[in-house]
Design brief:
4 domains, ubl conjugation, two-stranded antiparallel sheet, mainly alpha, 5 helical Cullin repeat like, Ribosomal Protein S5, domain 2, three-stranded antiparallel sheet
C-alpha cells in the first residue's frame, strides 16, 4: 500500500541520517549537521505532503490512528508522520548528545566570561527543532521542557553552586555581590535569543538561588557594615538580588536587620537627650529625630527605591525610637509653638532666624524654610502613637498664639492644620479649623463694629450719656475683640462667670459691643474672658514716656493709681473685684524689677493628660458602639481589632482599656454577651 511504502522509505532515510550524525566528531559540527539534516528532512517531507494531498484528505483522514473513523495503528498525515519517525529513530537516540553538546558550548562561554559565542545561532536552531517535534504532542512545549530545559537548568545550578563556594572562599561580600550580579546578567544575556523566554527567566532564578539564596545568611552578616559605612551601592545590589528570589525569607531578614539598625541609631539620639534636657530644649530634640529619620529616608530612596517592605522597616523603627520618649507629643507641640511664634523684633518665626545675621534672610526664603519645618513636624507627627495628646497641647498653644497675635504666619498655620487633616482626617482638625475661622471673622467683625459706631454715633450719644466717652475711647485707642466659639477653643468659661469691675468708659464700651453683636447675631450670648485679654498703656508720670504691654488685670490695677499714689491690696481687690490670689500674683509681677520666668506646675502639666484620659474613654466607647451597631454580632478578638483600626489616627488603645469600656457599655445596656458563647457580643438596639 502506498502509505506504508512511503513510511518505510522515510524510516530508511532517517536511519541513514542517524548513521551520518553518529559518525561526526566535535560538538559544534554535530549540532550544525543535526540542524541542517532536520531542516532538509522537514522541507522535503513538506513537498511530499503536497504530492500526497489526496491521500491525506481521504484515506489518511479516515484511517487516522487517533481521530479516524476506522483507525489504523501508525497512520498520520504525511507531515506529522515524518516528525514521529524523526523523533522515534533519530531524536530518541541523539537527545542526550544534543543536551550534552549545548551544555558544553555554554560551559565554554562561561569560562571565557563571554555573553556572545559563535554557535549561538546554531543553538537557537536546535531549540526550534524541539518545538517542531513538540507539534506531535498536545502540549507543544512539553518536549522542550523535559528534554532540554530541565537538564540545562540543573547543570546551570550545579555550575554556579560550585562557583559560589569558590568565590566566597577568596573575596569579600561586597566583591561577591558584584560578581553574583554580573554572573546572573551574563548568563541571562547568553540565554536570550537562543533559548525560550521561559528558560531565560528560570535560568536567572536558578543563578540567584544558588549564588544568593543558598548563602543569604552569610551575605546578611555584612549588611550592618554596609549600613554603618553608608555603602549604598552594595546595599542596593544586595536588595536587588534578594528581591529576585522566589521566597522572601532573605529579603525579610534583610528588612529586619535594617529596622534594628535604624531603631538602634535613633535610640542613641534619644539617649543623648535626657528627659530633663528635652523639656528645656524640645527644638533640639525634635530636630535630631527629624535628622535621623531623613537620613534613613534618603537611604531607602537611593538604595531601595522606596520599596514598600523597606519603607515599613523605616516606619516601624522610627515609631519605636520616637515613642520611647513618654512626652514626645508634648515636646512636638512645644516645638511647633516655638516654630510658629513670631519674633518680636524680626517679625518672623523665631526658629528661622540665622545666628549672627537674622536680617540677611529674605521673607520669601523664610517662608520656604518654615514650610520645610512644617513638613518635618508632619513627619514626626505621623510617628506618634498618642496623637490625641499632641492635639491637646497643640490646640492650647494655637489658642495662645491666635489670642495674643504672636503667630508667625496665618498661611503657615493653615498649612500645618491641612497637614494634620491629611494624616488624621477632618474630624481630628475640625476644632482647629474653627479656631482659625473665628480669628479671621473677628477681623471683619471689628471693621463692622467701627462702621456701626460711626453710623449710630448721634443716636448712641443721645440714648445714654455714658456712651459718649465710650465712643471717644474707641476712636482714640486701637481696640480689637475676638469672638470665639465656645467648645472649639480650649478655654474654660469658669473665669468668665466672675464679674470684674471695669472703668466707666470701658464698661460702657463693652456694653456697646455687646449691643452691636447681639443685634446681628440673635440667640447668641457673649461671655467676656478678661483674664486672657491684654493691652498696651502709656505712662505720663515719668521724665520720659514709657509704653507697657500688660495683661488686662495688670492694666486694671495700674489704672487705679491714676487717682492715688498709694493703695492697699485690699482696696484694689475691692475696686476691681479681681480675685485676691490673682491680684497678688499680678501685683508681684508689677513690683519686681525682673520677674521670674513662668514655670509650669506639675498640676498644670498633668491637666491635659487627665483631659485626654477622659476623651479617650468617650472615644473608645463611641468606637465600640459604632462597630457593634454595624456588625450586630461580633467576637471579642475581631471587636478589639476593628476598634484599634478605627482609633489608629488618635491613639493606640490597650487591650485592657477596650475590655474595661466594653464592661461599662454592658452595664449601660448598649451591648450584651451572647448567652452561650461569652466571647461574642451582641448590639442592644
Amino acid at each position: 500500500m502506498l502509505f506504508f511504502r512511503l513510511r518505510g522509505l522515510l524510516v530508511k532515510h532517517v536511519e541513514a541520517i542517524l548513521k551520518e550524525l553518529n559518525a561526526i566528531d566535535g560538538e559544534p559540527e554535530f549540532l550544525s549537521h543535526y540542524c541542517t539534516s532536520f531542516e532538509a528532512f522537514t522541507t522535503g517531507t513538506s513537498y511530499i505532503s503536497e504530492l500526497f494531498r489526496y491521500l491525506n484528505r481521504y484515506w489518511i483522514s479516515y484511517s487516522h490512528c487517533e481521530t479516524g473513523q476506522a483507525p489504523v495503528p501508525g497512520v498520520y498525515p504525511v507531515t506529522e508522520l515524518s516528525l514521529h519517525i524523526w523523533h522515534d529513530i533519530a531524536f530518541s537516540k541523539l537527545k542526550k548528545r544534543l543536551v550534552k553538546a549545548i551544555i558544553h558550548i555554554f560551559h565554554a562561554a562561561r569560562r571565557k566570561r563571554s555573553e556572545c559565542f559563535e554557535d549561538g545561532d546554531c543553538i537557537a536552531s536546535i531549540v526550534q527543532t524541539y518545538f517542531s517535534l513538540g507539534l506531535c504532542r498536545q502540549d507543544q512545549m512539553s518536549l522542550y521542557r523535559e528534554e532540554l530545559e530541565q537538564p540545562f537548568l540543573e547543570d546551570a545550578a550545579r555550575f554556579y553552586s560550585a562557583k559560589a563556594i569558590a568565590l566566597l572562599s577568596r573575596v569579600t561580600i561586597s566583591e561577591y555581590l558584584r560578581e553574583a550580579e554580573l554572573l546572573c546578567a551574563q548568563e541571562q544575556k547568553r540565554c536570550e535569543s537562543r533559548l525560550h523566554r521561559t528558560t531565560v527567566i528560570q535560568v536567572r532564578q536558578a543563578c540567584c538561588r544558588v549564588l544568593v539564596d543558598e548563602h543569604a545568611d552569610r551575605i546578611c552578616e555584612d549588611a550592618e557594615n554596609f549600613l554603618i559605612n553608608n555603602q549604598k551601592e552594595d546595599l542596593h545590589r544586595m536588595f536587588s538580588l534578594f528581591s529576585e528570589l522566589a521566597n522572601e525569607n532573605a529579603l525579610i531578614s534583610f528588612k529586619n536587620i535594617l529596622k534594628k539598625y535604624i531603631e538602634r541609631s535613633g535610640m542613641e539620639v534619644v539617649q543623648k537627650f535626657q528627659q530633663e534636657e528635652t523639656t528645656k530644649n524640645p527644638e533640639g530634640y525634635i530636630e535630631a529625630l527629624v535628622q535621623v529619620r531623613n537620613k534613613y529616608f534618603e537611604l531607602i530612596k537611593d538604595a531601595f527605591g522606596f520599596h514598600p517592605l523597606m519603607r515599613t522597616a523605616l516606619d516601624q523603627a522610627c515609631r519605636a525610637f520616637a515613642n520611647s520618649h513618654p512626652r514626645l507629643p508634648e515636646l512636638l507641640a512645644k516645638y511647633t509653638h516655638y516654630l510658629m511664634s513670631r519674633d518680636k523684633k524680626q517679625g518672623c518665626s523665631r526658629a528661622l532666624l540665622l545666628p549672627g545675621s537674622p536680617r540677611s534672610v529674605l521673607p520669601p526664603l523664610l517662608d520656604d524654610l518654615l514650610e520645610q519645618k512644617i513638613e518635618n513636624i508632619s513627619v514626626v507627627f505621623c510617628l506618634i502613637d498618642d496623637k490625641d495628646i499632641f492635639k491637646k497641647y497643640y490646640s492650647k498653644f494655637l489658642a495662645k498664639r491666635l489670642i495674643k497675635g504672636t503667630s508667625a504666619s496665618d498661611d503657615m498655620e493653615i498649612l500645618l492644620i491641612q497637614k494634620l487633616r491629611d494624616i488624621c482626617g477632618c474630624d481630628f482638625v475640625s476644632k482647629l479649623q474653627k479656631m482659625m475661622k473665628d480669628k479671621m471673622l473677628s477681623k471683619e467683625l471689628m471693621d463692622s463694629f467701627t462702621a456701626w459706631l460711626e453710623e449710630k454715633d448721634i443716636d448712641l450719644r443721645s440714648a445714654d450719656a455714658a456712651n459718649a466717652p465710650a465712643i471717644d475711647l474707641h476712636h482714640s485707642v486701637t481696640y480689637h475683640c475676638d469672638v470665639l466659639t465656645a467648645g472649639a477653643w480650649p478655654i474654660s468659661s469658669a473665669a468668665a462667670e466672675h464679674k470684674i469691675f471695669l472703668p466707666p468708659a470701658m464698661e460702657a464700651h463693652t456694653n456697646l459691643f455687646t449691643q452691636f453683636y447681639t443685634g446681628r447675631s440673635t440667640g447668641r450670648k457673649l461671655l467676656w474672658i478678661h483674664h486672657l485679654s491684654f493691652g498696651m498703656i502709656q505712662s505720663h508720670c515719668f521724665d520720659k514716656r514709657y509704653e507697657f504691654l500688660l495683661s488686662f488685670y495688670q492694666m486694671l490695677i495700674l489704672v487705679q493709681f491714676n487717682t492715688a499714689k498709694e493703695m492697699k491690696r485690699s482696696d484694689i481687690v475691692q475696686l476691681t473685684n479681681i480675685p485676691e490670689q490673682d491680684c497678688a500674683h499680678h501685683l508681684a509681677s508689677l513690683v519686681k524689677a525682673v520677674p521670674n520666668s513662668p514655670v509650669e506646675s506639675p498640676k498644670a502639666a498633668k491637666a491635659p493628660t487627665r483631659e485626654v484620659e477622659e476623651d479617650r474613654k468617650m472615644s473608645l466607647q463611641a468606637a465600640i458602639v459604632r462597630v457593634l451597631k454595624t456588625r450586630r454580632d461580633i467576637r471579642q478578638a475581631q471587636l478589639m481589632h476593628e476598634v484599634a483600626e478605627m482609633l489608629v489616627n488618635q491613639f493606640v488603645p490597650s487591650t485592657t482599656a477596650i475590655k474595661q469600656n466594653v464592661e461599662i457599655l454592658i452595664q449601660k445596656e448598649y451591648l450584651r454577651r451572647h448567652e452561650e458563647d461569652k466571647t461574642r457580643f451582641l448590639y442592644v438596639a
